Amino acid sequence: MRASDRTTIAVVLALFLGAFTLTPLTSDLRYLGASWGFLLVLGIASALLHRARLGPALVLGVQVLMGALLSLALSMTLSLSGEGETWYLHYLDVWRSGVLHMQTQGTPMDPDDGVVLIFATAIAALLILTDLLATGLRRPAWSIAPLAALFLVPAVGLGTDTGLRSFLLVATGYLAILVADGLNTTGRWTRGLSLDSAESVGATPVVWRAAALIGVPAVIGTLVLSALLPTLNLSGLGIGSGSGGNGPLQLTDPSLDLRRNLRQPPGKEVITYRTDSTDGLYLRLASLPQFNASGFSNVQIRLNTGNQLPLVPGLNDTSGKQRDVTISVLDFQSQYLPMPYAPRSFTAAGDWRYDANSLTVVNGENRPEALRNLTYGVTSTDVSPSANELAQSVAGTPLDSSVTAAIPKDLPEDLVRLTEEVVRGHDTAASKAAAIQGYLRSGEFTYSVEPLPGNGYRALENFLLRDKRGYCEQFAASMAMMARIAGIPSRVSVGFLPGKKQGDDTWSVSIRDMHAWPELYFSGFGWVRFEPTPGSITGSAPPWTLATSDNPSTKPSTEPTVAPTEDTPSLSSGPTLAPEDPGATGDGSAAFPWGKTLAGSGVGLLVLVLLAAPATIRVRRRSARLAGGQLADEQVEAAWAEIRDTVLDYGGSWPSGSPHAISAEVAHRLDTPESAAIGQVATLVERSRYSRRFDDLEATAGVPQLTSEIRRGIAAPLSRRRRLLGLLVPRSLFRRGAREL
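^ that's the sequence the OP posted. Answer follows.
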């Protein structure tokens, strides 16, 4: 097999395996078949182009052209637009459809033709890039870059756990490329000017043993790194990328799941609860305090152990009505414990921990499935001021005011002007909040599960200034944003509407009762719930919010605003545990995260492989060359090649000329014994090359020992740093087209 064929096969195999790493992103696996077809066609074409010995630039150009044609052909098989559309407009429409689908879907995404086209084309592009690095530029080690991109897209860009399988797929593909390069390199060892002695010196076993020596320590190193640098995946809300122990948590924006959840079929009961309250209760999962160009998201929180929560932030009068609630979760999983605000204590089986500032309760073992079929009790304090009490209050200053009161400097000016117009004439914080809520609940806005596409500022502008259509996410985010402009700290909470009452004290919550609402911070009361989503969906707004707003209607509606799409509903991910902080509290009892710790350390493993590969292959090559037991001429040529590579490894240059001329020049750098040794080896090389038959095993028996002495002589005058560099980065492995003498 030709060297170029071997490398091309390895590259195709690497991308074939790497394509599986994208499966966590979409439920539509059609992209695998399309991408494998692309890989097969491009792989065959690449092998033929390399056999034709065309230049790298020409090969790249042909590959790009073929990739474009394959992508275009795939688009023509995907139905999207009406008849009569030109091919290029159809292609752009399919591509735009895929981009929009990715912007407006949570993971795993629903099937979409555009996503199939984008994923298959991206994998083909990565094949072309990998082939350019491994074959065109002859730098196979650099092929880690495109392969790592496949691994890191779900691991970092979307914050989801790629898991052990994805890592092993990428690592196996990369090792295949390194092994192919090792086989190609050993295949260039020569006897004389043309005889290839690679097979007789055991080239193939050397390379495979080298691969084992690289892979096993690297995997062990990864497991060690996993314990020190865990990566996390709290899959309660589309948030986070791994699992780990105690310490701060980083939560992100769950809006993608709110958007996706609207497509869940109605009627699926996920929670029941019993309460002594005559009215139902909002059940909160998480609160999102940070606002920027991407929308509302969470920040780091710190987990504390125990089931007794601290004082309610900002609430002066703690003598308010307390409620005891018994909650039973059915077929629903989340990293968060649904609870009414403000929780004071809870009793739940398992490792559940709380954040003292947000009063959010999170599973400490990174097990969203721990919530399924869980029954637990909660004691909570109502935060329900009267309208008069709230009217006399001012906007407070929460402990996290640097986050919850912050107004981004790049916030579009038209949103600021709109807010100023809405609150004009209102002097108090409560009246401003009521005016904003009343504006959003007015007939000017329409509840719709199909808002204009976009996120962050664009979504807010679309909703407030253009079509004025949206669901709870747009209503909640708009009020929270406008409240900040009006000088009131705010955040967005995600959870459930009260649901439907069944019997005297029992309530049933459907998956379609999932909801988002804003909370505003007032002095003396802390975080106070508002409800800007129209009454047709939520019923009456809280009575304390109606100072200048709409009048209350009847009861909270049981109609939905959001719901998940999975058969087992859940928000897409939860918080991501960061490395433990010395100041964090916790019992440290979390189990070792075997299956979910490779996302962060995966890159470290690949770096270990990259660093270990050159040194390992070089050591094994030397062992094979000097092992003895070879034919006389092959032993001499192997020793001569080892001397040459040693000179190159340590930064020297290999002279040109006959073996005796070369030995004479190299001997000037050596002490007397080593000078004599290289002269003896040079004599044997010339005898083996130019004699009719050379089989003097007695003369060659000492060649390995002579070669070792020569190597020590070459390294002796060098600095420790130079010797270490020669070991770790042997130049002889990276030379291309050098003349074998």
